[in-house]
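Final report, closing paragraph on structural work. Over the funding period we assembled a curated collection of sequence-structure pairs, and we close with a single example.
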Amino acid sequence: MSPRESPWAAGLAEHRAAVADFVRAASSLDSATWLRPIGPHRWSPALITEHVRLSIEAVNDDAAGRAHMAVRLNPWKQFVARRLYLSRVLKTGVFPGGIRAPRETRPSPTPQSQPDALADLSRITAILESTIAAHPAPARCRLTHPYFGKLSLARSLRLLTLHARHHLAQLPTASPQ
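Its predicted structure, as stored:
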């Protein structure tokens, strides 16, 4: 079954569009802006791009049955996080501030070149679509989120989409040409 025919087609299309918007915005930045942190103690667009890619890669690995992100909270704290934050994030797209990125999604100290980083981001997005299309039981697929625990594939895709849009909003506007 192709991604277009699958019940996940809408979620995948929404995620693909969010990543494409991110890639478009990030590709319009000049090389100095690409490497400059967006604020004190903040990442540069290069590192934000790597973080978004690593997040998609972690979900892809989990969906493919390989390693998944480590759960950071005990079951009680996961329950509280799901009740207080997950529904709100899924509805509004607003992520709570001050939460450190999970270790698996923290970028390396040495950023990739802009073309390589954006190509890798597009590549892993396509791989995720293939992984989901090839999954033997996507309706039963439960993916591990480090703070919320096990989530359905639909919720995981929605969260990934919102995550890409969240970081898109952090990118500086395009440099004047």
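The chain has a mean pLDDT of 92. The CA atoms of residues 9 and 123 lie 18 Å apart. We thank the funder for supporting this effort.
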